Amino acid sequence: MSSLIPPVPQGSGTPHVIDPVGGCPHALNARLRAEHGPVAEVVLPGGVPGAVVLGHDALREFLAHPDVAKGARHFPALHDGTIPADWPLRVFANALGMHTADGADHRRLRALVGKAFTIRQVERLRPRIEELTAELLDDLGRAAAGSPDSVADLYAHFALPLPMNVICELLGVDPEHRDRLHDLTNTVVIATDITPAEKMAALQELMALTATIAAARAEHPGEDLTSALIAAREDDGDRLTQAELIGTMRLMLVAGHETTLNLVVNAVRALCAHRDQLALVLDAKATWSDVVDETLRWDTPVSWFPFRYPTRDLTVGGTLIPQGTPVLAGYSAAGRDEAFHGPDADRFDITRPTAARSLSLGHGAHYCTGAPLARLEATIALERLFTRFPDLDLAVPEADLPYQRSFISNNVRSLPVRPGRQATA
Predict the structure, then answer these.
(1) Which domain of life is it from (predicted)?
(2) Does the first or last residue of the chain, that is N or C, have fewer Cβ atoms within 10 Å of its Cβ?
C-alpha cells in the first residue's frame, strides 16, 4: 500500500457520508442496500474512506473470511501519517485485547476469558441475576409510584443497572466505580459526535480507572474474573501483558453491559409496539428466548461496528474491497436483509424460524464470548419484567424517544414507561 488513504471499495453509487449523530438505522440501511447492494462505500467521520457490509450472506462470509483481520497493523493509513493522530475513531483501531487480536494471540486471549463464559459457568450466575432483577423491579415500581404521572425511566432504573452490576461483580469492580465506568465507556465507545479531545480525555480516564481496578485485584485477589486473568498462565508460562489485561477488561466492561442494556431496551420497545407478540409469550405460545432471538435480528444492539481489514484485495457480495480498507460490520442492516430473511424482514415476529440465525452476536473466530451471559440476563429480565408488570407500556410515542448520538450503538437514551398494575403472586 502507498502512503495515500486506500482507494474506496469499487461498488456503485456515491459513497455514503456517515453522520456521527447516528439515529435509528433501519431506513438508512434499506436505502443503502437498494442503492449499493450488500456492500456500500462510506466516508467515516474525519473523511476516511471505508466500507460497510450490509447483506446477511455477505456479512457472514466477511466475518469468517481467512483474509480478514482485526489487527490495525493491516490498516496502513493509520500509521503512515495520512490519518491524523486525533482521528476520533482511532480508539477502535488502537485498542489492545482479544477483540483486535488475530491468530494465535487471539486464541490465547480468548482461551483465558472464555472459561468464565461457558454455558455451565454462566448458569451458575442465574440466582444472582434473578436476585438483582427482583431488586431493580422493586426500584422501578417505587420510581413510578413516586412520580405524579406514574412514569419511570426503565433505562435508568432497570435495563442499565442489571447488566452493569452483573459484569462488575463478575470482574470484581467495586460499586463506587460503576456509574463512572458507564459514563466513560459510553463516551469512548458509543458517542461518535464528540470532539477528538473529549474522546481522548475519556479514554485516558477509562484506562486509568481500569488500571486502578486491576491493581486493587492484584493486591487483594478474589474469586472474580479480573483476579483470575491476572493470575492466569498459559502452558508456556506467559502472563497477560498489562496492555492486554487493561484492553481485555475494557472490552468486557463495555460489551458486558452496553450490548445487554440495548438488547433489553430494544426488546421492551418491540413488545410494547407489538402487543400481539407479547400476548404470544405471556400465553406460553412462544418463549422469552424467542423474544431475545427476534430482537437480536430485528433491532440488534449494535448497528455498524468497527473495524475489520482485508489483508488482500477482496471481493465480497460482488464488490471489491481493497486491501487495508477499514470495514464496518453492518449488523442492523443484515438483520433486516430481505434477501435472507424474506419479504417480511421488517416485521417483528417471535415465531420466525430463522430468528436464531442472526449475526448480531458475531460469527466465526470472534463470535461474542459473552453471548450466553447476555442471553441469560435478557431472558430473565424480560420474563420477570412483564410477569411483574403485564400492562407495562411506553409513556411517550416511539417517535419521541431520544436516540443515542451514535452510528455504532443502536438504542435510545431513555425509556419512559408506565409499569401499570403489578400482577398478584
Answers:
(1) Bacteria
(2) C
Q: What is the pLDDT of residue 242?
A: 81
Q: Which residues of 60-98 are buried (b: 16+ CB within 10 A; e: fewer)?
A: bbbbeeeebbbbbebbbbbeeebbeeebbbbbbbebbbb
Give the three cell numbers for residue 141.
415500581
Residue 425 burial (CB count, 10 A): 4
Outline where 82-185 has alpha helix (H). Answer: 90-94, 103-114, 119-123, 126-145, 154, 161-171, 178-185
Q: Which of the four pLDDT bands, split at 50, 70 and 90, describes residue 2?
A: very low
- Alpha carbon distance 76, 81 (integer Å): 9
Q: What is the pLDDT of residue 45?
A: 92
User: CA-CA distance, 293 to 300, in Å (whole number)?
Assistant: 10
- Total length of the chain: 425
Residues in a beta bridge with 119? none
- Tell me the three cell numbers of residue 330: 453492518
Q: For the domain 16-418, what is the CATH superfamily, name and number?
A: Cytochrome P450 (1.10.630.10)
Q: What is the CA radius of gyration of the chain?
A: 21
Mean pLDDT of 195-212: 86
